[in-house]
Design brief:
The chain is mainly alpha-helical and 158 residues long. The chain has two domains: 9-38, no CATH class; 41-152, Ypt/Rab-GAP domain of gyp1p, domain 2 (Helicase, Ruva Protein, domain 3), CATH 1.10.8.680. Helix content is 60%, strand content 0%. This is TBC1 domain family member 7. One of its GO terms (biological process) is negative regulation of TOR signaling. It is found in: Cytoplasmic vesicle; Endomembrane system.
Length: 158
C-alpha cells in the first residue's frame, strides 16, 4: 500500500484543497509527551511499574468480562473497551443487549479513533479511558451534540 492510502482520508483531502493537515499520530505523540491527559505519573522512575499494574488491571478486567460472558473473542475491541470502562466505573448493564447511552456512543467513537492511532490494546484502552474522563470533566455539556464521526473533528484532530 502507498503511504497516501494508509493515511486518514481527511488529511489527503485537506492537502488537495490547500490546507496543511495535522497527522493524528504526531498529535497524539505530542499530547503524550506533554502528558496533559494524566496517563503517566509525574515521576519517571515509576512509569515501568505503573504500566505493569495497568497491564495487570487490563487483563483482570478483560478476564472478568469473559467469565461473565459479557464479551468474547468476536466482540469488537472498541466495545470491549467500553464494557471494561463501564465495569470499572460500576455502570455495567445486566446484559450487553441493553441499548447504549449517548455517552457510550461518544466513548465508542473515541475508542475507534484511538484504535487507528495506537497499536497496543492496553495503551489504547488507557488513553481512551483518560481522554474520555477529561472530555467528561471539561466538556460534559457538549457531549450530546457529538455524533459518531465528528468526535475527532470537535477535539481538533479531524
Amino acid at each position: 500500500m502507498t503511504e497516501d492510502s494508509q493515511r486518514n482520508f481527511r488529511s489527503v483531502y485537506y492537502e488537495k484543497v490547500g490546507f496543511r493537515g495535522v497527522e493524528e499520530k504526531k498529535s497524539l505523540e505530542i499530547l503524550l509527551k506533554d502528558d496533559r491527559l494524566g496517563i503517566l505519573p509525574p515521576h519517571h522512575e515509576s512509569h515501568v511499574q505503573v504500566m505493569m499494574y495497568r497491564k495487570e488491571q487490563y487483563s483482570d478486567v478483560l478476564h472478568a468480562l469473559k467469565v461473565i460472558r459479557f464479551v468474547s473473542d468476536a466482540t469488537p475491541q472498541s466495545e470491549v473497551y467500553l464494557y471494561m470502562h463501564r465495569l470499572e466505573s460500576g455502570k455495567l448493564p445486566r446484559s450487553p443487549s441493553f441499548p447504549l447511552e449517548p455517552e457510550d456512543e461518544v466513548f465508542l467513537a473515541i475508542a475507534k479513533a484511538m484504535e487507528e492511532m495506537v497499536e497496543d490494546s492496553v495503551d489504547c484502552y488507557w488513553i481512551t479511558r483518560c481522554f474520555v474522563n477529561q472530555l467528561n470533566s471539561k466538556y460534559r455539556d457538549t457531549l450530546p451534540q457529538l455524533v459518531r464521526g465528528d468526535v475527532m473533528a470537535v477535539v481538533g484532530w479531524g
